[in-house]
Amino acid sequence: MAKIISDDVKLLGAWPSVFVMRPRIALNIKSVDYEFLEETLGCKSQLLLQSNSVHKKVPVLIHAGKPICESLIIVQYIDEVWSSEPSILPSDPHDRAIARFWASYVDDKWFPSLRLVIGAEGERTAALIDQVTEGLVLLEEAFCNKKAAFFGGDHIGFLDIALGSMLGWLRVTENMVGVKLLDEAKTPWLVQWAENFCADAAVKGPMPQTEKLVEFAKGLLTRMRGS
Amino acid sequence: MAKIISDDVKLLGAWPSVFVMRPRIALNIKSVDYEFLEETLGCKSQLLLQSNSVHKKVPVLIHAGKPICESLIIVQYIDEVWSSEPSILPSDPHDRAIARFWASYVDDKWFPSLRLVIGAEGERTAALIDQVTEGLVLLEEAFCNKKAAFFGGDHIGFLDIALGSMLGWLRVTENMVGVKLLDEAKTPWLVQWAENFCADAAVKGPMPQTEKLVEFAKGLLTRMRGS
Predict the structure, then answer these.
(1) Do A77 and B68 touch (CB under 8 A)?
(2) Residue limits of the GST C-terminal domain (chains A, B) (predicted)?
(3) Which domains does chain B carry?
């Protein structure tokens, strides 16, 4: 597909953020060219503070001078503005509701457990790991019967982006805690899905290398424990 | 508008729930007839447990035998399935993103403070009240310049439903704590908006009487403090 060249699309972000990865993947899927403005950790730019005065957080998409905030809201915006195929949300209302439901589950229930695993200790670690694997099993059970390559069918869709953006941190967690979270025995469909997702051309650029992300996570952990 | 008669639309809910009020208002806006299946507090029906096995919470819309969960996802589903006017989401992608942004702000940031005010004590109460009024001022500032009757313009839209469904509990909180949260001096536009919202035909049925809700809230508080 030909690139849509626009000097009017900017994305405020940070490379290690799962939430920033979402609009980056969506823009890649739609072949929209954009300027990536990297924020420095611990130092928010004036543009970020102005563009997201409520939450002061990345990602912020600035399109034609207007800011849009919150990763999944940005992904839906991208799908609606650049509405040519491939579409990110399914066309059927029920399928859309299901994709939104699980994306919301991933954000509100599943990821809050995953992000705490690395910093946890003792029994708390085990309990969090259980919650993470239970969530993955729920997703496996809900989608494995469809026998599709992606949650979105034969191409990456809304829930693929929502969960897939977290695969980097999942691997970092596996690496740092020494545990297998995405397990062939428990979630064979998801293991294959993760492989499909990471191999996709729209994902390869934004998805950070695990080693680089592990280094970043170690630095973050040292900071947190030092404070 | 003629009622859309369908024996295929059921809503599992509970009358005091702000989240259940949302799909009820949306179905009224679309003139869709539905069967309201009231859940008993503290005793979840088999149908609820089957239909929302992940969260086990109301509201659940069951349309043509298929369950849809999570209040704002249900509202979007209703808008997409019964797509005739009036539409609930704005048609412009940027306006849609703004409506979704503030609806998410209301759910994730504002309501968590409001719902804790009644049960709080001392300085904590004052801090929560400050958070609630700050949130209302943010909303006032973001929308008062539009000089419209509703967030959605000249008719009730997505953000109206998201925030408006909480007006009953806002009044209960004002009544039980003896504080004015929606204040003519600080948020004149919102005061008028709340009046417009509650006077709307789609809202009158689902919106509980403040006295009845106060009784319910007192019972809930006694239970919570007793446990």
Answers:
(1) no
(2) 92-220
(3) 9-81 (3.40.30.10), 93-226 (1.20.1050.10)
